[in-house]
Amino acid sequence: MEQDNAPLALVIGATGGIGGAVAERLVARGWRVRALNRSPQTAKGPRGLEWVQGDAMLAADVRRAAEGAQLIFHGANPPGYRGWGALVLPMLRNTIAAAEAIGARILFPGTIYNYGPDAFPLIDEDAPQQPTTRKGAIRVQMEAALAEAASAGTPVTIVRAGDFFGPKAGNTWFSQGLIKPNEPLSSITYPGPLAVEHSWAYLPDLAQAMVRLVEQPGAGAFESYHLAGHRMTGRQLVAELEQVAGRRLAVKRLPWLALKAMSPFNETLRELMEVRYLWETPVLLDNTRLRARLGEEPHTPLATALETTLRGMGALPQYPAALAA
User: In angstroms, rounded to a whole number, what is the distance separating the alpha carbons of residues 241 and 251?
Assistant: First the structure.
């Protein structure tokens, strides 16, 4: 039974990978969680949510859904990421306006797209954001809007992570590019050199860190943290996946030249081409500030995280050889 005095959070994007993970963690921590969705009757997300109908593009819908909330998680994306560049800033401004009106804190997932090669290989939490891509420039504008809102009195927490993976990760490099869902794992398509390190964030760990950070007493007006996650080369990731799957995996390279040839006719492929540079050099996140705030970073053992992810994707047989052994 819900307690009337439990804190209330509005989650925008609860059907997505990170929004769903944050909503699930908030519920587990005793929050009441309201989720905004255009079609709440058919929306799929964690149990225990209060679904309300509304569109993140409509300021009145967001304001109405946010009534009484102490926290707004903003994970909104256009359906199928169509028109992403034109829509994400207006959606964020609607969240900022709602948070300003009710005095709520905004919780926002940051990305590594904000940074150019000058910040690599180890990106600290105060590194200058000088992106080289259109997507990165838009993400910088989004965080600038949040910083401006914080300076005007609306508190903001940003938690940045590398590429996501998890049992309900949705549209990510891991679940849509590296591995084919809903069939037994037999191969991996890797987008960069196998010797290069990359930061991966297991979604339940990221969600736990986010919720713990906003629950900490004495939070500042504008806070930005990095989650280090699992740092590994492509070769290490393949070896871990083979251990979990109990078999050798064929390793394929992403056909960048073919994608480049098709990209003028496909918006998604154009987006992929923009971020190729993030796979060609080590991109790691320094979590010094997060560890100072929480004492330690939530960190599920990699084998457990990968097995849970593959099972959620339907990419493991019922009794993999690794478990039988």
Answer: 11
